[in-house]
Known about the structure:
This protein is an alpha/beta fold.
Amino acid sequence: MNEKQIVKMILIILLFSLLIIFGLIVRNTYINKIKPINEKKVYLEKLKQNNKNIINKIKEENRKSKNIDNILKENKAKREQLEKKVYEKESNISGKVIYLTFDDGPSIYTNEILNILDKYKIKATFFVVCSNNLEEYTKKYIEKGHTIGLHSCTHKYSNIYSSEESYFNDLNYLSSLVEKYTGYKSKYIRFPGGSSNTVSRFNRGIMTRLSNKLKENGYKYFDWNIDSNDAAGANSNQIYSNVIGALENNNRNISMVLMHDTKSSTKDALDSIIKDALQMGYTFANINDYTPEVHHGINN
Ligand SMILES: [Zn+2]
C-alpha cells in the first residue's frame, strides 16, 4: 500500500463516518421532534373526530327531545279536549250555553238569587267583593256547586288601577279571604269595569299590563257579551228585555251575561230570564277551566 492509497482509505473511512453521524443526527431529529409532532397531529385528529361525534350525538338527542316535547304537547291537547268532552257530557252542556255572572256581591239579594238558581237546578258564577257576608256566601257557593270568581276587594277604581302593585294587593287579599273561608283558590277574574274600561285612563296602559300579568300568573279573566244593564239602573222589565232581546238577536254559542246580585231588580227579573232562555233551547253553566274567555278589546 503506498501513501496515496492510505490517504484514500482514510478519506473513505472519514466520509463513511460522516455519513453515519449525519444519519444518526437525522434519525435523532426525527425521533425527538418530528415524530412527536406527527403523533400529536394524529391525536388531535382523533380528538376532533371525537368532538364531532359528541356534537352529532347531542344534536340527535336534542332532536329526540324536541320530538318528545311535541308528542307531549299533542297528548296534552288531546287530553284537554277529552276532558272537556267528558265535562260537557257530565254536566249536560250542549249547544248554546249561557253563563250567568253576578258581580259586586254577596248582598241581601243573593239568597233569593240562589233560590231561583236552585229552582231551575242551574249553576252560575259569582264575582265577589269584600262584603260583610262574604264568608257565609262563599261557603254556600261551593256547597251548591257555583263558581266563585274574584272581582275586587275594595272595587275602588282610583285605588286598584293606580298601580299594578295596588291591583294585586287588593286582589290577593280578596283571594286569601275566599281561600280561608272555602279552601278554594279561584283563578277566575273579572276586572271592575271590565277589561275595556276607560275609567282607569288616569294610569296609561294599566289594563294592558294587568291583563298580561294575570295571564302570566295563571289567572283567566272574563268580560261579557250581554249586559243586563242592571248596574246602570235598569228596572226588572228592562233587564229581562236586555238579556232575552240579546239572546234573540244574536246567534252566539257562548253568552256571557253581566248581572249584579246587589240589585233587587236583577233578582226580580231572573226567574223569567231563566225560564224563557230554557224555552229557547239554551243551557246554563258556570265558569270552569273549559269556558272560553270572553274578552273585550282593551282600551287602556
Ligand atoms: Zn263591579
